[in-house]
Design a protein that fits this description.
Blueprint (H helix, E strand, L loop, with lengths): L2 H32 L3 H14 L3 H24 L5 H31 L9 H44 L1
Helix pairs in contact: 1-3, 1-5, 2-5, 3-4, 4-5
Length: 168
């Protein structure tokens, strides 16, 4: 395995972990919370948003982009012209995930947190209404983009392996 392949594999794993996280929210967490009361959804999401801010999450969240970019640099260095477009496409898709996260998801999370403790809210239904549908919609966008990024990186690994086998 070349260093390029190792970096691409790490980028694919990190991107896959993020795609899985977004997918789990799309198909299980948010549908489950949709069946709860307003205060329960608000409190659960406030706690999830606080808990997710940890070193392991940040390592994978940022690492996926950094590893994708490093993979692109290594493709240029190695002259891997058939691999490079797929790595770039995967990295751009993941970069768009970050754009959505910072432009939409985090501001929604911040507004939810600023609403205060659910037990002290006078209108938790209004807080939920301003949060839930938009967050779910944009999380689906992140899920699709991240899954696309993973597919591109996986295909880049396949092509890189073929190129390596042809060169041996």
């Amino acid at each position: 395995m070349t260093s390029r392949d190792a970096v691409l594999a790490a980028a694919a794993v990190a991107t896959g972990l993020m795609a899985g996280l977004f997918f789990a929210f799309s198909v299980a967490v948010m549908p489950g919370l949709a069946m709860t009361g307003d205060r329960t959804l608000v409190e659960a999401m406030q706690r999830i948003n606080a808990a997710i801010q940890n070193g392991w999450f940040l390592l994978v969240f940022a690492g996926a982009l950094l590893l994708g970019a490093a993979g692109a640099v290594l493709c240029v260095r190695d002259g891997a012209r058939t691999v490079l477009p797929w790595v770039v496409a995967g990295t751009v898709c993941y970069l768009l995930v970050l754009v959505v996260t910072f432009a939409v998801s985090i501001p929604l999370n911040d507004r939810l947190d600023a609403a205060g403790p659910p037990g002290a809210m006078t209108d938790p239904a209004a807080v939920r209404e301003r949060f839930e549908a938009a967050w779910v919609r944009w999380n689906l966008v992140r899920t699709l983009l991240c899954t696309g990024a993973l597919g591109c990186l996986a295909w880049a690994l396949v092509l890189s392996g073929r190129a390596g086998a042809a060169g041996s």
